[in-house]
Amino acid sequence: MQDLAESAAERRGVRLRLLRDDWQHPELPGNKWRKLKYNLLAAREQGHDALLTFGGAYSNHLAAVAAAGRLQGFRTLGVVRGEEAPALSPTLQQCRADGMQLHFVSREAYRRRNDPAWVAELLTTLGPAYVLPEGGTNALALRGVAELVQELNAAGEAYDALTVACGTGGTLAGLLTGLDGRRQAVGVAALKGADWLRTEVDALTEQAVGRRYANYHLHHGAHFGGYASYSTELLGFIEEFYLRHRVVLDPVYTGKLLVGTLQLIEAGHFAPGSTVVAVHTGGLQGWAGFQQRFGSYPPAAV
Questions:
Q1: Largest CB tally within 10 Å, which of 81, 128, 148, 184?
Q2: Start and end of every Tryptophan synthase beta chain-like PALP domain (predicted)?
Q3: In this structure, is the dihedral angle defined by the CA atoms of residues 149, 18, 92 and 109, taken in order, positive or negative?
């Protein structure tokens, strides 16, 4: 864990720390490994030798599943949103290098990814497999994420709140089940118009442990225009953060997480004297895609 000397935190008397959960597994960084852990065990227990999942051309989840398949001995099948481009994204190139079979579908067809009948058709075409949802979020994923809280508590770490970037809401929901009503959790939405996240988080915790929690807050002020959207301000923050702390953030999730956490500190959301832990969930493989599309503006360390 790393202490962050940030002026907003110092002014407000808040201790801000960064948990490098992206270091948890050398090839499956951060929340992706935690989400996959118990799903992989379930897949093996059910006799599956293949994993099927969904994602876009720059998906951290697809990259993680492909790597997990290579490491754990599963065949992997990736259903990719959109037609196949003449040049694959760096993410999809790595997925193929890790052995993933890519199956491209139209955006219209991809909207049916949660339709059991459509998924059954895919399995008929591609062969039997253990199905992982987009982003890897399900009840078993929450069980893996909850272990982060258990590890913090076992290490005797003192903290009052955890903050995490929110895409599907699965990581936040997992943290809530680990906290079990104690302390506070904050999800910083990486998407614009993500008011549905609260309903999703509540549904996930109810499915996983049979209850909803009130000890969390969703922050919607750091999405910078929407999922995978960015701005000069966000990129400048990421660059300055690296120069101060020698920690690389990404513009899809963790950059927005730290901006949002500092916004809440500045606004007095956390009481003076409290300790806030921001969870770095990884996602740095996405920088290769940004470089491919827009040029070499990320921090020099990437």
A1: 148
A2: 9-282
A3: positive
